[in-house]
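Notes from hallway chat w/ T.B., transcribed later so I don't forget. T.B. wanted the structure written out for a chain they're using in a teaching module, and asked if we could keep both sequence and structure tokens in one place. Agreed to drop them here.
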Amino acid sequence: MEEREWVNAAKKGDEYALAQLFQQNYSFLVHYLIKLTYSLEQAEDLAQETMTKAIEHIVKFNGKSKFSTWLISIATRLYIDQKRKQKREQSWQKQEQALRMIKWQAQSANEDWHMMLESLGKLKDDFRIPILLKHYYGYSYDEIAAMLQIAEGTVKSRVHKGIQMVRKELNEDDKGQYPVGKTVEQN
């Protein structure tokens, strides 16, 4: 059978035809993904995800391109989505690290933790509650999202913005003194 015939059979629910299409294209797909990711493990994971998406959406394949081209486009989109997610996670990790640094700086500079709590107290509930749940009580972003019945991304955004507001507040309160994170040598 030709590829077009395999595709038509797969669209009609023929599992053998679908398996044949995947068998014919799997090696090509994995090699492409290895070149994209530089990781065999990540390439194989993405290949599996690609196959799953292809199974779910086989009826949407219009046949204007080769089946392998369609698989590559799915794999590429999955890879890009994965990279975006990694960037977001890295951003939130940096933000969490920044809060830990603020805590450390406040403690090491003999700053009263009371000032930090006072600054938190000036925040609106929308920002204060997620910060307290995340950094004081140690809940994960998804747990906080479930508790507050808001999207996880909204929780992350509010924690990040709230921390920025606390930093600004602490720096304004320290006018005439050294801002948190600065030493005599830095000023």
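Follow-up for T.B.: The chain has two domains: 3-83, 109-182. Might be a good example for the class.
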